[in-house]
Amino acid sequence: MGGLCGVVSKVDCTLDLFFGTDYHSHLGTHRGGMAVLQKNGTFHRSIHNIQNAPFRSKFENDLAKFEGNSGIGVISDTDPQPLVMCSHLGTFALVTVGLIENIEEIKKELFDRNAAQLQYSTTSGMVGPTEVVSALIATQSSFVEGVKYVQEKVRGSCTILLLDEHGHLYAARDKYGRTPIIIGKKDGSMIALQESCAMPNLGYKYVRDLGPGEMVELSAEGDVTTLIEPGEEMAICSFLWVYYGYPASSYEGRNVEMARYRCGGALAKRDNVKIDAACGIPDSGTSHALGYAHEAGVKFARPFVKYTPTWARSFMPQDQRQREHVASMKLIPIPGLIQNKKLVFCDDSIVRGTQLGKQAARLYESGCLETHMRIACPPLVFPCRFINFSRSKNEYDLITRRYIRGHEGENVDLSKYTNADGEEYKKMVEFIREKLNLTSLQFQRLEDLVKAIGLDETKLCTYCWTGRDVSLKGERKGCAACKNCPCAGK
Ligand code: SF4
After folding, report:
1. Which residue minimizes the CA distance to atom 1 of ligand 1?
2. Is the Cβ–Cβ distance between 103 and 177 less than 8 Å?
3. Ligand 1 mutation pick, 463, 470, 485, max ligand atoms within 8 A of CB
4. What CATH class does 255-457+468-482 carry?
5. How far is the CA of 238 from the centre of ligand 1 (A)?
6. According to the CATH classification, is domain 3-234 in 3.60.20.10?
7. Alpha-carbon torsion 146, 151, 157, 159, what sign?
8. What is the pLDDT of residues 52-104, one digit of tens each?
C-alpha cells in the first residue's frame, strides 16, 4: 500500500511533515522519505530503509538538516521516494501511492517516443512506479496536463503529491479515488494526507476529502484551488475500513473504528451460537469483536495479546516465510481465558488461512472447547488489481481459489462462489472451516459490510469479493486481463 503527507506553511513545516508522515507508518514497510523545499530554492531529501526500524527512529537524526516551508513525505511499500526530478516543467519533488498494472506498456510507450530514460533499480531489477509517473507528467505542457495524462494512462491506481520549485503543493487523488486524500488546515498551514488521524495532534482541522480524480493546489493562506474537477465515479477501497486503515481515521466522513464496530455487530445479528466470550485477532479483529460483543450481549475477552513493544506495526515483511514467523511471534495466548471456554473469534479476513489455522491449533492446545470464527468481510475470491495490497497478490495465494482449482479446475465461472446463498459458496466455506479445524465459520455478507461502512455500494470498490469494478466496464468477456471476472463486458 503506502501512505503520503504534504505540508505547505508560512513557517518551517519540518515537524508537521515528519509527524504527519509518521502517522502513515502502518501502511508500508519498505522505504520512508521526506523532501523539503529550502529557502534557496533547492530540495533537501532523505530516504531510509524502514524494513527493520520505524520511520521515526530512522529520521530523528536527519531532522536538524531539514528546513523549509513546504514538503512532502511518504511511507512506501514499493520504490524509494520522494523523487526529485528535473524537467522542462522545472524541478519538482513527487510521491505516489498505488499500483500501475500496465507499467510495461507505459514504459514501452515512453521509450517509443524517445521521451524518457528510466533508472533501473539494481536491487529490485525494475523501474520504480513513481519514476514512470514523473516521466508521464514531464511529457506534457504543465503539471495539470501531466496529472490528467497519468490518470488517462494508468491502469490500477495512482494518488500523487507534487511539490514544485516555487513551493506550490499539488495533491491529486486517484481517478476512481481508490485511496483517499484528505485536506486539513490550521492558522498559516495546510496539510494533505491519507490518514486523517494525523491531523488533531498536529493542530489541523478537517477541511474536506478530495473527490475521485480531483487535483488541487494548497496554499499556506488556507486556499484550496481545484485544478482538475472530481469525476463522477468513485471506487474507494473497502479494505480501508475492514483492515488497513487506522481506527482513528475517517474517509468520506466514515470512521474506521465505528465501521468495524458495525461490522462486528452485523456478524452478531446473524449469529445464534452459544459462547462464553467474543474475542478478536489483534489488531483490527479487536474492534470487530467489540462490536460483536456489544450486539450479542456477551463478554469481550482478549485471550491473545499482542507483544507491542517491538512488534508495534500491523503490516508485515513482504517475504511470506518471514511474515508468518513474525505473526506467530506477535501473539501470545492467555490460557486462563481459553481453557474450557467456547469462544467466538473475529478477524478481518482470510487470505491463505495459514495463520488462522495455526491460531486455532494453539487455542485447542490451550484447552479451548469451541472456536467459532467470524470474518468481517466476505471470502476473498479475486486478488486486488488496483492498489499494492500485499495480502492477496496472487490468485492462488487465496485459500478460496486453491479450493476452487482443486474442486473444479482453472478458468471456471467464479460468480457462484461469491453468492452467499448459493450451494457452491456454502461448500467452499465448509471446506475452509474443516481445513482450519474450526468449530464453525461465517463470513460477513457483502450487503452488511457495505451498510457497516455507510457509503453507497456504487462508491466502493468491492472487487476482492465480487470481481466487479467500475474500471472494468470496457473489458470484453474472455480478454486476458479479466479472465474469470463475472463482470466482464457489463
Ligand atoms: S480489490 Fe479489494 S483491496 Fe483492492 S482496492 Fe478493491 S477493495 Fe481494496
Report:
1. 384
2. no
3. 463
4. alpha beta
5. 6
6. yes
7. positive
8. 888 999 998 899 999 999 999 999 998 999 999 999 999 999 999 999 999 99
